[in-house]
Design brief:
Layout: H1 2-22, E1 30-32, H2 49-57, E2 58-60, E3 74-79, E4 83-88, H3 93-97, E5 102-103, E6 110-111, E7 119-125, E8 128-133, E9 141-143, E10 151-154, H4 157-173, H5 188-202, H6 204-213
Length: 217
Amino acid sequence: MDVLDQAMASFLKWQDQYNEACGLFKEQDIRPLAEFCDPGVDIRIPLSPELQHFYTRYEIRSGADHKTSLGMKSAAVEIGDAAVLFFPKPEHLFRQQLGYRWLGTGEPYQASPSWPPEHVVIANYNDDPLIVDTASPASPVYGRIDGSEAFLLADSLADFFSALALLIEAAFAMEGNVTNEETFEIEAAFVEEVRPKLVQLLGKDKVENVMKYLSFY
C-alpha cells in the first residue's frame, strides 16, 4: 500500500494547508491514524485491499454536529470555492449505498438489479456518487451524474487522491478563489494551471471525466 500512502501524504499536505488558510469546515477532514483501527464497516459492503487500508489507516473526521440529510457524519474535502466532496465515516457507508446498491424505505432493503454489487459509493459531490470498484486491481474510481452510467475518473484509489492533491494545491495558490464572482464559471487560470498536471497523472480522457464530474466545464 506504499503507493496509496504516498498519494495520501500529498493529499493530506494540501488539504491541511488549504483548510488552515481558507477552509470552511472545521474539523471535518481526513487524518492519518497513529495505529490501525477497526473501521466498523457493515459486513454487507465489500472492501478492496486499498479501501480496507484507507479506512483502517485514516480517520474520517466529521466535526461536532454536522450530519448529511441521510444522518451520516462526513468529512468535507474542499477544492476552493468550486467544489466540496463529502466522505462519510466508514460506519455510515451502508447508508451511503441507499438509493444506489440498495433500494427501499427500510430494512430489509432490496438489492438494485442494475447496480454492480462490487461498486461502493465512498463519497458524493452534489449528491452524485463517487464510486470505487472493489473487485478490480488497485480500486479504480468512477463517477456518476444524474443517474448516468458510471465513467472512469482514475485507474486507482491512489491516483484519485493524487488528483485531489493537485486540485487542492491549485486552489490554495489562488486563495480558494476558483470561481469567477460575476459569471460563476471556473476561472480559466485554475484550469490552465491544473489540467496539464492532471493529464500527466490520469490521461486526457479521465481528466475530462474528472472535470465533468466536478462541474468544472
